[in-house]
Recover the amino acids of this structure.
């Protein structure tokens, strides 16, 4: 535990220095960008979000190494790499993906949207990796990237950027504590509101039944989603 | 997060193409993928598929139609689409409720009806990661649940020494509704569809693919219902579930998660057939359903028997 505290201390020093450097032009750097940099400097990341970044970096490295390897001769049919085109938060992307990549891996390591989280380790049990795919709230950890050709995907970043009322409603209702599960909840709630703009509390509880929150903020989610439904502009 | 080991992936264009790849061996069919990808990620089975055949790219398998005195549901119909379908909710209530109580909204948006009835059985030894328990279901020599912790296991005995239970919620609903399952080779009565194999849970041949589920439209005065007992309201697999279709002098009652395959409670059917649906008769039917049930040595799963009895009773009462 002590080295971990040490690392944290070191990072906060880094942060202060960086803040001082950035101070003159105004502080534009996001927390995540900073943590990415800090993770590289420190080298032994201990915080959750840094671990995720480091994991992403290793996985990206593996992926790159994998593509350079000469593919082992295989009797089974099917290409090693599939080219897929998909729309993520309104932007169009084209990737050559390996068959065993999950959509979550593609979104985080390659497209650069880090809101699909991992909690249950890919069992489909927690809802933290939820994204909206073709109007359906799905688990990105249980979706193969190569099967997403032509898909239209929305992540929590896209929902926030579009200033969907669900974001402000979540803030107004304090419907989170640590925030790790929140992107999953937001995506699920947005998919519900897209289908049903006037949900009842029972509908909301039913729709959010697949999202787990370790901080147990469950009671705050239905009022937040109902508030968002009230604030939905027609056609938004 | 554990990543998958490598495999090849083919988008099938037709059922025949998918079937011919499956015939080549070491291949698995993927539709929703919520069960298959989990077993692969945690390397539950000793054999890892070399190729996945994607059925979602085969056109024309996602539909719900009521015609010719029956309801026809395409194999790729998502469970959530079944939940939202008004025809199914009104006339085939047991199926709509069973689909609604399956897993979570996310998994229902991904998982298909055909996939739900073809899922692997559930047993914590069988499902342990990295094939730690090479049980009879995986070509091993013993059942670890027989002497181990079997609190969630079969109350109607073992099949070929396996005590794992079928966890599907929609399966008992389909048996109660007297459904037929159409594959690319034949038409199978729902009741005959499940069988203990290594490692599967259905009678399907290696290259056989479910294409459609057919349910005869129930006559006037016939009602169906589905009841599930689980630890949590959402997400959980059933401890015991029960579907019933009663009315017009007929009765069909099916339990699941109590046996290796959906367990049709014929004794309960006989007890309620032609009688008024009331508390006493339903209670008698529940007692008849579990008359043949027997806890495993050590009585760890004895608690499931009164639950099964009550599920039968409540499912029948819900058909009133």
């Amino acid at each position: 535990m002590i080295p971990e505290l040490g690392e944290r201390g070191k990072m906060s020093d880094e942060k202060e220095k960086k803040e001082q450097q950035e101070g003159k032009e105004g502080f534009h750097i996001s927390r995540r960008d900073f943590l990415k940099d800090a993770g590289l400097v420190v080298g032994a990341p201990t915080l959750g979000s840094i671990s995720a970044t480091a994991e992403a970096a290793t996985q990206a490295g593996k992926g790159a190494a994998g593509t350079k390897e000469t593919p082992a001769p295989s009797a089974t049919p099917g290409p090693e790499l599939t080219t897929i085109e998909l729309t993520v938060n309104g932007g169009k992307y084209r990737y050559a993906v390996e068959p065993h990549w999950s959509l979550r891996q593609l979104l985080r390591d390659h497209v650069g949207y880090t809101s699909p989280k991992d909690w249950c380790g890919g069992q489909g049990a927690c809802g933290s990796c939820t994204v909206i795919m073709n109007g359906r709230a799905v688990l990105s950890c249980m979706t193969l990237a190569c099967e997403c050709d032509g898909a239209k995907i929305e992540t929590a970043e896209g929902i926030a950027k579009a200033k969907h009322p669900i974001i402000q409603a979540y803030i107004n209702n304090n419907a989170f504590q640590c925030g790790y599960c929140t992107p999953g909840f937001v995506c699920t709630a947005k998919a519900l509101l897209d289908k049903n703009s006037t949900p009842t509390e029972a509908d909301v509880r039913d729709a959010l039944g697949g999202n787990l929150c370790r901080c147990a903020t469950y009671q705050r989610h239905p009022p937040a989603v109902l508030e968002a439904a009230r604030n939905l502009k027609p056609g938004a | 997060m554990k990543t998958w080991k490598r495999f090849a992936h083919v988008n099938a264009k037709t059922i025949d193409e998918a079937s011919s790849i499956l015939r080549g061996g070491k291949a698995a069919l993927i539709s929703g993928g919520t069960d298959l990808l989990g077993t692969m990620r945690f390397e539950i089975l000793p054999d890892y598929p070399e190729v996945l055949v994607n059925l979602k790219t085969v056109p024309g398998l996602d539909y719900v139609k009521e015609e010719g005195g029956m309801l026809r549901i395409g194999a790729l119909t998502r469970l959530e689409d079944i939940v939202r379908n008004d025809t199914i909710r009104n006339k085939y209530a047991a199926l709509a409720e069973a689909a609604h109580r399956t897993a979570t909204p996310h998994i229902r948006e991904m998982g298909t009806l055909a996939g739900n009835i073809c899922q692997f059985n559930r047993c914590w030894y069988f499902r342990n990661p990295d094939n730690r328990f090479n049980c009879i279901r995986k070509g091993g020599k013993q059942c670890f649940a027989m002497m181990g912790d079997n609190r969630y296991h079969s109350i109607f005995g073992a099949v070929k020494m396996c005590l794992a239970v079928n966890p599907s919620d929609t399966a008992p609903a389909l048996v109660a509704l007297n459904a037929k399952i159409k594959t690319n080779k034949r038409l199978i009565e729902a009741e005959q569809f499940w069988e203990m194999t290594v490692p599967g849970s259905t009678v399907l041949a290696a290259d056989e693919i479910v294409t459609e589920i057919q349910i005869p439209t129930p006559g006037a005065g016939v009602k169906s219902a589905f009841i599930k007992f689980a630890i949590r309201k959402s997400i959980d697999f059933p401890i015991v579930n029960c579907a019933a279709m009663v009315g017009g002098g007929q009765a069909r009652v099916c339990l699941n998660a109590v046996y290796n395959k959906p367990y049709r409670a014929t004794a309960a059917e006989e007890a309620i057939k032609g009688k008024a649906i009331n508390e006493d008769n339903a209670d008698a039917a529940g007692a008849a359903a579990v008359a043949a049930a027997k806890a495993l040595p050590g009585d760890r799963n004895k608690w499931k028997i009164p639950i099964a009895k009550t599920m039968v009773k409540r499912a029948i009462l819900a058909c009133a």
Remarks:
- Residues 36 and 53 of chain A are 7 Å apart (CA to CA).
- Chain A has nine helices and five strands.
- Residues 2-23 of chain A form the longest helix (22 residues).
